[in-house]
Amino acid sequence: MELAPADIAAHRAEADRPEDPDEPDGDAGDDDDFSFLDTRGPIAESPADFSFLDERVEPVETASREPSAAAEAAAPEVEPAREEDHVGIQPAEPGEEDEASGGEDDADFSWLDEDLPPEEEEDRRTEPSGPAVPAAPPRAPLPGDSGFRLRERAAPPPAAAPAPRISWAERLRLGLSRSSSQLTDSITSLFTKRRLDEDTLQDFEDVLIQADLGVETAMRITDRLSEGRFGKEIAGAEVRRILAEEIEKTLVPVALPLELDLEKKPHVILVVGVNGTGKTTTIGKLAAKLTRAGLKVTLCAGDTFRAAAVEQLKIWGERTGSEVVAKQIGADAAGLAFEAYDRALENDSDVLIIDTAGRLQNKAELMAELEKINRVLSKREPDAPHTVLQTLDATTGQNALSQVEIFRNVSGVNGLVMTKLDGTARGGILVAIAAKHRLPVYFVGVGEGIDDLEPFKAKDFAGAIAGLPVT
Ligand SMILES: Nc1nc2c(ncn2[C@@H]2O[C@H](COP(=O)(O)OP(=O)(O)OP(=O)(O)O)[C@@H](O)[C@H]2O)c(=O)[nH]1
Ligand SMILES: [Mg+2]
């Protein structure tokens, strides 16, 4: 026998009334008025609770609405099916299920359960505190032509363990492993079971020069090795330690933070370098660092050669919440830089970063264009650009030295960023550049992501080249 809606309403009203003092009086006496059901708004919003209602349409459940004698007879069959349905819901909405055990939900649907045996209610109350995915008993098969089916819910996939993010020092070591393994292999073959003599020192100096460390640093290292050790055996670990110490000595003076003088807002950073060395990516990462620190940044799409370059910078602008000043392709880069300066003044930016088109250092005409950007900016503000940052690709070897040489002369480079130290880097050249140019190295790029720009640390870098373990 089915219960008529009016019977259900009356039943609900009776069951709910003592627990729901806010319910308007007029609703209780009106058999045809179901509006009081609307007071269960919070439950209606819960998908878990609707699913719970689904289980009521099982034939065995329908039986439980029959007069109580029949319900009691049906109860043993009902129990496994109910248990399983509930388990099926729980993993999908664990938080809501917990809430459902809390009060309002229990009270609202208690009328549905009142004709079930007491153990059943006990089970339902304690279920949320049980294991997240208890083993479910097999569901009793439904009659073949019942005209309905229960929605199957797939168990949620196990939460994927977050990928461990390796530290930047480890990435640096991996990136420099090509340089460092060549050096350590040479150290092993040169120094194992051999007394230190002139030939060994000469061979080692050659190895250091081949690793791009530069003649000056290579000689300092071999001089240091020979001190008090001539004619004696020296362990490979000792050679590596001395190597790291000497490289660090060269790098410490250039490992400086980028200083921004906001007395002269906006601080203008012009970013220059050979094609593909990571200018635009570094600008994006730097803008992220600065904006996170609360500084306002404007970006200037000074690479007016390629539409893709402008788009690339705009994406970084969006990611970092920085305004991007751009013009049509082919526009004069110096003119654009000039306008961007005014815009940055207008919007009260702390920092203006100007991207430029990559160019080979031996293309005089393009290099002259860089000079023009400097000239035009300095008309607007004598000290601008305050920082001229050159990006160097760490996978380039010796050529980086001449890149710095020429860009420094043409556009007054006064700071460096070495990018791609996460790849198959040949970082030794940075030591030679530091020894020769003594330009500050502000950051190193250790990946393509927004957070993959790290302050340059002399000790870590030296240790990575010498193949020392990360400390
Ligand atoms: N692995 C790695 N890739 C980098 C790093 N920095 C930049 N790149 C990648 O190097 C490629 C070139 O980077 P860009 O920033 O476009 O270089 P660019 O100097 O602006 O290039 P042009 O505008 O063509 O001169 C891109 O694929 C970057 O994702 C880094 O630190 N590590
Ligand atoms: Mg670019």
Automatic annotation (TrEMBL):
Pfam families: SRP54, SRP54_N. Residues 1-162 are annotated as: Disordered. SMART domains: AAA, SRP54, SRP54_N. Residues 65-78 have a biased composition (Low complexity). Part of the signal recognition particle protein translocation system, which is composed of SRP and FtsY. SRP is a ribonucleoprotein composed of Ffh and a 4.5S RNA molecule. It is an enzyme of class 3 (hydrolase). Belongs to the GTP-binding SRP family. FtsY subfamily. Keywords: Cell membrane, Cytoplasm, GTP-binding, Hydrolase, Membrane, Nucleotide-binding, Receptor. The keyword Cytoplasm applies. Its EC number is 3.6.5.4. Its main location: membrane. It catalyses: GTP + H2O = GDP + phosphate + H(+). Residues 19-35, 94-122 have a biased composition (Acidic residues). This is Signal recognition particle receptor FtsY. It is found in: Cell inner membrane; Cell membrane; Cytoplasm. Residues 9-18 have a biased composition (Basic and acidic residues). GTP binds at residues 273-280, 355-359, 419-422. Residues 440-453 form the SRP54-type proteins GTP-binding domain.
